[in-house]
């Protein structure tokens, strides 16, 4: 098979039937096993398929994308108003508020997965679907703010003794809910 094969004599059906093929350039016969015979292109080797895309990408059909945007807008809008009232009027949160905060952490975890699995168009206009460039881009944009906002402040405030008159610097810092502010930045960007 290492010989330079220029032209095959005979039709594709004849080539299938024969085990030896005659080559025009020097008149010698070359023996090829039947399993290696490709009737469409007899002497080309197939290149292995290299999978460059990740196994799973976030769905990009418009109906799903719009439904997810509305889902996140409702949740983010609720956070924008609810957390402001919590910061203003709440001394010690109810346990239901702690559970609600864990639910929102789950919602924003799904959003982090969405960001890490959504392709983007880079500066040169190419669609980037590889995981590493997507993760690198997210690392330098919102990942640290999103991870910072996972601090379970409501749980710490629920367990604190601030309502009983115990004050210290940590409780006073937690009183202002600073860790929720990065989620407001995303809301501000959504409405620009």
From TrEMBL:
Answer whether the UniProt record assigns the keyword Glycoprotein to this protein: no
Task: Note whether Ion transport occurs among the keywords.
Answer: no
Q: Record's superkingdom?
A: Eukaryota
Q: Which keywords belong to this entry?
A: Membrane, Transmembrane, Transmembrane helix
Spell out where the chain crosses the membrane: 67-85, 94-116, 136-156
This chain belongs to the protein called Ion transport domain-containing protein
């Amino acid at each position: 098979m290492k010989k330079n094969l220029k032209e095959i004599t005979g039709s594709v059906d004849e080539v299938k039937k024969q085990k030896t093929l005659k080559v025009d350039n020097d008149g010698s016969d070359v023996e090829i096993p039947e399993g290696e015979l490709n009737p469409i292109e007899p002497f080309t080797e197939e290149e292995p398929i290299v999978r460059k895309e990740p196994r799973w990408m976030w769905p990009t059909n418009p109906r799903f994308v719009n439904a997810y945007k509305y889902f996140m807008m409702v949740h983010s809008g609720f956070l924008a108003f609810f957390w402001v009232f919590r910061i203003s009027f709440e001394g010690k949160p109810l346990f239901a508020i702690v559970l609600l905060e864990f639910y929102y952490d789950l919602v924003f975890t799904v959003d982090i997965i969405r960001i890490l699995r959504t392709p983007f168009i880079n500066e040169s206009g190419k669609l980037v679907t590889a995981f590493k460039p997507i993760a690198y881009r997210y690392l330098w944009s919102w990942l640290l703010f999103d991870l910072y906002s996972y601090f379970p402040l409501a749980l710490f405030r629920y367990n604190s003794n601030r309502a009983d008159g115990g004050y210290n610097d940590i409780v006073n810092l937690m009183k202002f809910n600073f860790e929720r502010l990065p989620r407001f930045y995303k809301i501000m960007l959504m409405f620009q």
